[in-house]
Amino acid sequence: MANVHTEHGNGQLPQYPEKATLEGRNKILAFWLFLGGEAVLFGTLFATFLTLRNQTNEGPTAAELFSLPLTAAATFILLVSSLTSVFAIQALHRHKVKELITWLIVTVLLGIGFLALEIYEFYEYMHLENFGMTTSAFSSAFYTLVGFHGAHVAFGVLWIGVLIGQLYKKGLTVVTAPKIYVSAMYWHFIDVVWVFIFTVVYLLGKVG
Amino acid sequence: MAHAHSVKRYKGLMDWLTTVDHKKIAILYLLSGGLFFAIGGFEAILIRLQLIKPMNDMLEAQTFNELITMHGTTMIFLGVMPIVFALMNAIIPLQIGARDVAFPFLNSLGFWTFLFGGILLNLSWVMGGAPDAGWTSYTPLSSTMYSPSHGVDFYTVGLQIAGLGTLIGGLNFLATIITMRAPGMSYMRMPMFTWASFVTSAMILFAFPAITVGLVLLTFDRVLGANFFNVDGGGNPVLWQHIFWIFGHPEVYILILPAFGIISEVIPTFARKRLFGYSSMVFATILIAFLGFMVWAHHMFTTGLGPVANALFSISTMLIAVPTGIKIFNWLFTMWGGQVKFNTANLFAVGFIPTFTMGGVTGVMLASAPADFQFHDTYFVVAHFHYVIVGGMVFGLLSGLHYWWPKMFGRVLNETLGKWTFWTFAIGFHMTFFVQHFLGLMGMQRRVFTYLPNQGFDTMNLVSTVGAFLMGVGIIFFTINIIKSFMQPKGCANDPWEDGRTLEWTIPSPPPEYNFKQIPLVRGLDAYWKEKAAGNTEMTPAEPIGPIHMPSPTIIPFVMSVGIFIAGLGLMFSGEEFSSSFMSFIFNNWIVCGLGLLITFGSMLMRSLFDDHGWHIEPEEFEEEGYKHG
Ligand code: HEM
Ligand SMILES: [Cu+2]
């Protein structure tokens, strides 16, 4: 089955298994392009947020609402998860499957930790601060931008989770390697988006 | 599983539902695009019938609003775009010497999501009323306060799903053109249609995510009670206009660039000359795309952005006329001194030039902000965009369809009927829209369902309606031509025009499943013409004959799209009170929406878990004449 494609030429996995086949190279290229589209998507959401961030409609304002320690912790977790994802790709290039799997698991756990903080944050806003989707234009823009990002993280967690399972079953091959590689690209991308969210939504929100 | 022949090959309907062959997907796009085009055309006829005389009461104002909204939306997103995609699918892989697109699976997924989005949008007619806020769906008109029915929800959700399909398609073409070109086919040797499609796809990639967000925001406002565009809650309706046009203006160039590409293929072929100024053509295409992203506020001159913004957008808009003019002159110089053959394909191409130019001229007039205060929201604008879209885009598509029909279906269209198509359509077109310039200048507003007599509007409106019927007759001639072409046996020559210049004319019509038995070696621009000039009858192969790897057919894209369709309906009706409590239960608790998403993501998971290694066609199985459809 899958092992038909595992071997390449001299029976060895090539050093960059993610780029060994045309399919793999196509996948990576298309994923770069896809991220370009995603950048426009988040760009539009950011523009919307920037337009509406002071339209609080007599509801809570950003300065009243946000707690920097919490979001700083979330930022830290997500940045570390990007680092562990880099370690995973380095393990991939050294063909160390066990190490690769371990780093991916750490990445996923960190992602789950981030999501937990975010859910906790949203829960607090909604139930303790009376700050829901319908409160103000600011609240709508906040939940949509941050929620879109959160949904991306959640998808990434599920995706990488599935890939870990595939690594167990199929091993590292020229078919699984590109999948791991593009999922790492995706993970870095949503990490970068978060850095912008942290700056534009939270830091800027605190200074007013 | 990984091995060659164990792949299941489907027949009949299942073959079409599971195909990943770009040539068959092209036919699917053409069929559904044609169907939506017919629906949109029928809506147009109804609109024109209502306007045939003053104070007409054939239609109610509400129905009229639904018709104009659905006409514009259907024509742009579901009619013209898919037909462009049909030609791109059918021709690009052939022009670049490839066996398929980069992602056959995504290609199929893009088609099915587009189709289900289109079906969802059109279901509105039978499910409580079509959208009625115009194809631009400006807020607050499109808010639940002023559009309380589900019409606008069908618009937001249907377009969202269809747009997803378009985005997937664009991404796929970009990757295909970057990575799948035959040896020797450098960027500056790519045929102009491929170039135009390439740039168009890049525009799709960067423009569609904006409308994705816009539609999400509008959906959230309507379904979840968010406040993006709701002034009461601090929202900003002008934001919608910005987002819509940041997408919308690039979209109009997404429509026209492929037509530019088609014209740039047809004119050189039938002038028997190489395209004049190929590299300036490429440059102009890229420049148009680039500028196209910086002019959106010319749709908003009267919104009140202020004189500085209006002046800047006025200038950037006028700048677009420069690269467009370069193209016009290049086509004219291509024909200059050529042995021009006026068959149907070329009539549409040559007819395109003055017609489109007129649309460009009114565009530059509109770009002058002070003058636009007079023109805006009158029939002058309607005349402008129909000159560029119908006189440009649709002429281009009809030219391309006549030109590539033999390649797609192995049968040449009848020339006599083709000429009838051209003349009725072209005369009908100018009758319909030329007078609308003057109606607009005289002050007739667009989007009004009727008008008072004796304002000088009556005769011109009558002429316009008669013209619309004549265009309809043109389309009927075309339909008859298509039906007749299918009554003759398949099997026209590889190069039925005898003057083919590009790679698609080197292989059978229609091409076999694998397109090229051997990938050709490209030795210059107009690769086939170059070989002909060197006295060769065929391309030099770039590889030995060997087994050809093919992707397996799959039903997953279809199932994924069904899932999105169900999720969309679930979302739209999540707040609905049904007469049956069971229905209310499953919709109000998001069960239907969740189920749809489960189907989609579940099938995505299947796709990821079970590797598809495809299959091989062995050299003994190559068919010399091409393969049979269906
Ligand atoms: C030289 C090129 C062009 C210029 C300078 C130009 C300029 C303009 C301007 C200023 C408007 C706004 C008028 C108003 O609403 O008051 C407009 C409307 C429009 N243009 Fe163009 N245009 C050009 C080419 C095109 C092309 C190539 C297409 C499509 C293929 C197109 C499609 C449209 C459409 C659909 C609208 C109306 C949108 C609406 O309000 O519903 N234009 N154009
Ligand atoms: Cu425009």
From TrEMBL, chain A:
The keyword Transport does not apply. It is a multi-pass membrane protein. Residues 29-206 form the Heme-copper oxidase subunit III family profile domain. The chain crosses the membrane at residues 29-50, 70-89, 101-120, 140-164, 185-205. GO terms for molecular function: cytochrome-c oxidase activity. GO terms for biological process: aerobic electron transport chain. Keywords: Cell membrane, Membrane, Transmembrane, Transmembrane helix. Its main location: membrane. SUPFAM superfamilies: Cytochrome c oxidase subunit III-like. GO terms for cellular component: plasma membrane. It is found in: Cell membrane. Belongs to the cytochrome c oxidase subunit 3 family. This is Cytochrome B oxidoreductase.
Automatic annotation (TrEMBL), chain B:
It is an enzyme of class 7 (translocase). Pathway: Energy metabolism; oxidative phosphorylation. InterPro entries: Cyt_c_oxase-like_su1_dom, Cyt_c_oxase-like_su1_sf, Cyt_C_Oxase_1, Cyt_c_Oxase_su1_BS, Cyt_c_oxidase_su1_bac. GO terms for molecular function: cytochrome-c oxidase activity; heme binding; metal ion binding. Keywords: Cell membrane, Copper, Electron transport, Heme, Iron, Membrane, Metal-binding, Respiratory chain, Translocase, Transmembrane, Transmembrane helix, Transport. One of its GO terms (cellular component) is plasma membrane. It is found in: Cell membrane. The chain crosses the membrane at residues 26-47, 67-92, 104-127, 154-180, 192-218, 238-263, 275-296, 308-333, 345-367, 379-405, 417-439, 459-480, 555-573, 585-606. Its EC number is 7.1.1.9. Its main location: membrane. Belongs to the heme-copper respiratory oxidase family. This is Cytochrome c oxidase subunit 1.
